[in-house]
Amino acid sequence: MIGIESAGRGVLPAGVPWICVAVGLLLFRATVLHCRRAPNPAIDFSLLSIPTFHAATVAGSLLRAGAGALPFSPARVFRRPRRNAPSARKNMPACETKHRI
């Protein structure tokens, strides 16, 4: 997580985030191999061979990632220019703003 979190920010020296990502992937691979060989694994990957369980797991993971990103989406919404914002009004034609009686 620290590798992905700091990859483009310049917080860590160059190359360190990618080393963290590589170490994380190696540890993940080691965990998967261990869980497949253990007699009573913490995560039973054979359950993923059931199509409905596999679909639910993948969809649930994507939904969880989307829900985790939800707090950051209002900031993007509020940054979009609106039609009646002062910055958008400067490009409107002035002939429609004055009315004669």
Q: Structural class from helices and strands?
A: mainly alpha
Radius of gyration: 25 Å
Strand content: under 5%
Number of DSSP-assigned strands: 0
Mean of pLDDT: 78
H-E string: HHHHH
> What fraction, in percent, of the residue positions are helical?
55-70%
Number of domains: 2
Cα end-to-end separation: 66 Å
Core attributes:
101 residues; mainly alpha; 2 domains; 5 helices; 55% helix; transmembrane helix
3D structure, described in words:
55% of the residues lie in helices and 0% in strands. It folds into 2 domains: 1-43; 44-81. The chain has 101 residues and is mainly α.
In short:
This protein is an all-alpha fold. It has 2 domains: 1-43; 44-81.
Topology (elements, then pairings):
Layout: H1 2-5, H2 16-37, H3 51-69, H4 73-79, H5 86-89
